[in-house]
TrEMBL record, chains A, B:
Keywords, alphabetical: Cytoplasm, Hydrolase, Manganese, Metal-binding
Family: Belongs to the PPase class C family.
Gene Ontology annotations for the cellular component aspect, listed alphabetically: cytoplasm
Sites where the protein binds Mn(2+) 2: 15, 75, 97, 149
Main enzyme class: hydrolase
Cofactor note: Binds 2 manganese ions per subunit.
EC number: 3.6.1.1
Protein's cellular compartments: Cytoplasm
The species this protein was found in: Lederbergia galactosidilytica
Binding site for Mn(2+) 1: 9, 13, 75
Higher taxonomy: Bacteria, Bacillati, Bacillota, Bacilli, Bacillales
Protein name as catalogued: Probable manganese-dependent inorganic pyrophosphatase
Cofactor(s) essential for the protein: Mn(2+)
């Protein structure tokens, strides 16, 4: 058995990057030959966490089949969110906390999904189950992932298990979760100097909903004004992606990390589904989604329902 | 949150029935309101185990949505192997040891699949993880499931974990695994008095392979002669099912529990794929598959490959 790659989804966020690094630590200490890799650019928030805990980013790869026969997926399972040549390798494990869709294997595998707020919360349990001690750097990465995915414990995806895990990890990492967390989120919310195209691709995911091809991108911001003054530019970029990829809907969501509300911009022939899904009226293609911070729990399910009718 | 049903696949085998009963014990003791149910008739082998350990069979149901909103699947995940109205309820958990396919949710869930020989082996671990003691009856059911799925530890699907679990469970159940196991397998291998139609449906599963619709049924026997003297009758029944369901292939596999070889009868326009998959020549629609005892590990993967070309 040769080396396996461990990686999260395209357009990597902090949970995807940290979980690949952390699960590689687990597997390595259990005697497996693995390498964490990434499928895209490190964002500002993740870079803050890596710098703070002095951990190197995983190596970037475009494809995997040329280097390994087997892979381990973390923080995703849907094929369209994964590496393009996934069908040419064998998936031996998945550790995830998302819905399951567009996933199929010909052989049994180790698949562990739990409805918690963050992949790292599951990884923390695995350290305990395997009797492995958690080192400071790895604790810091897992804590960063939980803070990122839960928007500092404010997201409805955040469970008691995530909060308990974060407490334990903050103690090992030697940081104050609230203070470190807000600094990290602010580092990620700094969108100055980013082009509209960059904003749309920072944390974008594709979904099949009913027969519709949907992309949803989310950025955090400290106040949404900095983003909204560039609305025309962003709309043009959205139109371009919709045309290029043949999307039925591109939903761009700006989440204010201070108020925990989001502003959405919807482009595509299926944009009306957004009104139905969230009981809002789009004005100039935009609407405020009050209290909505979680793509997974508050956006994907109602939009899937609206588009499956 | 109302009651949840826990059930395994259609045409239930010993692992499916026992895992539903056992996981219901786990969930009940953890404070959840659950009921184990079954989607089909109890076979002779399973009945032997239930009688031996004095456990009532789960209630039979045709559909679930009229009674519950949420369900827990054990020992399967593929939609076509599950209850017909699965799309009308929410799947909150899956505990399984098969490949993952034709499975999709709109929300995150608890999904635990491990590449072990038997669902009950995973359930045994869950007792330990939750700090629950295993009672004698439940140990007996889990042991029966492992013996059934592993054909008394002879199947290539059987892992060290299954063997370890079986040892521990036999001690709690107070039986000799080898002796009890052979008695149980023989009870299941008694096919006298069964019609050809019954033989085909005892342990039948449907699969999508490439674009082909495939059904694979397996029966155990002590010596295959009792089955093969009825070959003409069985072939006619196979032809009938292929026509009724529009199958591309129906593969009927008789596994000798003493020699651990199987005899296969293949009917349908895609029967040639069997020759390719197992490197055998079908004579009068039949071939011996030497050393083949596991549908999951030795039949489904090569047949999927052959039919996906």
């Amino acid at each position: 058995m040769g080396k396996s790659f461990i990686f999260g989804h395209k357009n990597p966020d902090t949970d995807t990057i940290c979980s690949a690094l952390v699960y590689a630590d687990v597997k390595t200490r259990l005697g497996f030959e693995v390498e964490p890799v990434r499928l895209g650019e490190i964002n500002g928030e993740t870079q803050f966490a890596l710098d703070y805990f002095q951990v190197e980013a995983p190596r970037f790869v475009e494809a995997v089949a040329g280097e390994v026969d087997e892979v381990i997926l973390v923080d995703h399972n849907e094929r369209q969110q994964s590496v393009s040549d996934l069908d040419q390798v064998k998936i031996t494990e998945v550790i995830d906390h998302h819905r399951i869709a567009n996933f199929e294997t010909s052989d049994p595998l180790y698949f562990r999904a739990e409805p918690v707020g963050c992949t790292a919360t599951i990884l923390k349990k695995i350290y305990h189950e395997k009797g492995l001690e958690i080192e400071q750097k790895m604790a810091g990465l897992m804590l960063s992932a939980i803070i990122s995915d839960s928007l500092l414990f404010k997201s409805p995806t955040c469970t008691d298990e995530d909060i308990e895990a974060a407490k334990e990890l903050a103690a090992i990492a030697g940081v104050d979760a609230e203070k470190y967390g807000m600094d990290m989120l602010k580092a990620g919310a700094d969108i100055s100097g980013k082009s509209a195209e960059e904003l749309l691709s920072l944390d974008a995911k594709e979904f099949s909903m009913g027969s519709a091809k949907v992309e949803i991108a989310q950025v955090n911001a400290v106040g949404v004004e900095d983003v909204l003054v560039r609305k025309a530019e962003i709309e043009a970029a959205l139109e371009q992606v919709v045309a290029d990829k043949g999307l039925d809907l591109f939903l761009f969501v700006v989440t204010d990390i201070l108020t925990n509300d989001s502003t959405a911009i919807a482009v595509g022939q299926a944009a009306h589904a957004v009104e139905q899904a969230f009981n809002v009226k789009l004005e100039a293609k935009s609407a405020i989604l009050q209290g909505v911070v979680s793509r997974k729990k508050q956006i994907v399910p109602p939009l899937t329902t609206a588009l499956s009718k």
